[in-house]
Amino acid sequence: MKKLLDVLLPAVAVTAALAVAYLELRPWLLAPDTVPVTLSAGGGGGRMHPLDRVLLDHRFYLERNQSLLPALTAKPAAGQVHGFWADTCEVTQGAFRKFTQWLDFQPPNYRNALRLPGQPQPWKHDSSTRRHRISGRLSAPASGVTYYDAHAYCAAAAGRLPNAAEWRAMAAGGEGRLYPWGGEFDDAPWPYLDPLLNAAQPCGLHPAAATPDGVHDLGGGVSEWSSGAGGIPAVHGGNGGERPYALNALSLAWTPAYPARRSPFIGFRCVYDAPPPMPGWRVAPAVAQVKPGIAPPPVPVAARVPRLLAHLPPEDYALLPLLVRAGGDEDGDSAAELRVMRREVTRAEYARFLRDPLARIGIYADPGEPQAQDYTPRDWPAQLRHPGRPVTGVDWWSAHAYARWAGGRLPRAGEWLKIAAGDPPTTRPWGDDFAPRAVTLETARTAPQDAGATPADRTRDGVLDMAGNVSEWTATLHIGARGFAMVVKGGNFTLPGRPTTTATFANAIPPNHRSPAVGFRVVFD
Questions:
Q1: 335 contact partners, CB below 8 Å, separation of at least 6
Q2: How far is CA 93 from CA 181, 217, 258, 450, in A?
């Protein structure tokens, strides 16, 4: 056995060294024909919205727990918020107990006036906090209260529960803060391992977690009742026990809730249309003014993951990182300079990729790639009879894997447009005029021509076949009513040239589709 190992180990070491050397030298050995292209200024190269980062970090929680989806997929719409006053702290256990004791001595018609439609009879306003082990912490937030209890307290205090828009106005402010205190998560409101201790902290222990208006504990402490929207009560904000804290503490976080629900992690605060008077139970509320203004959309328009969540089934949430990367430049953001393949990837070049054993075992696959993905193009034996033509019949996953194998990537749609239009930009790769310079429907071709064989279809930088021959996959995601697709740029031999040879022309195709008129090219940073 030892002799066998003595023989095998050096062989394995040599094989590993050769594999490493191959991976290091492969881009040099491939030596693709590229041209340098300087792109016009366009931003930051696909910046990710902070909300997207939070949601991606916790995508597997969202897969298991769908309760936040209504909040995360709400249609973006701004709204007018009228000014109001809000309790700076959540109503405490001590204040709520004094209220219930005071209410017992009020006449029946007054107690009935505090009832809501559909509220069960008889009803005793109380808190289940008395029955768990944070009982007696009178400075802690009241919890274990139903929507009916919270409504009665606020109505008796000359106020009301906030509606959903008002709660968000308190938490997000006019600038649309991601968290009540700002744009980055801060775990200071969760100092204890025991969730109940986190929920029982007195107001104001973490001033850095307050809003700029001085409203405390909207992200931590206990979650809070609101009257919701459309007549359905809701629970807003994070609390001391529900993980992940960074997700549930978001200013936009809310879940619909049954009004009779009681939880040691749900409390409330009141809002008022005028500075409130001293209530009958003699606990004066401290309030902060929330000024009127335009409330930003609850879900930021620039965030991409919420739009994906609206279309993806939970079992596909593992694809979210890939799809967000793919959607990174809808506004044209891009790198300053790229090396671009002069022509589209040919069938001969793609055949080398298919022969590579590392490609066959999935080394260049994306983690979100479908299981049992086959990189073999459609009608591959027939395609190989014309090795100089662009490879077609490849889905997006195959093009993406080839680009990684070649040491580059697919261009983003904004980059593709800038490469085709040039600087200063023109309508078409060669200029602003339309003429049959590209391989399009007008040329009466029944198949693409050899890659780069149409010199009239050329950009000022020398990139060929961007207006016609075959359309090209990009790395940019399109989200539509029917789900997500990948942006395809450029005309092809099956399309009329006048509309499709412009640099702005684009289409969207599902990533699994294999078309005889769609290929790709690779760019290198």
A1: 39, 45, 415, 525
A2: 25, 15, 22, 78
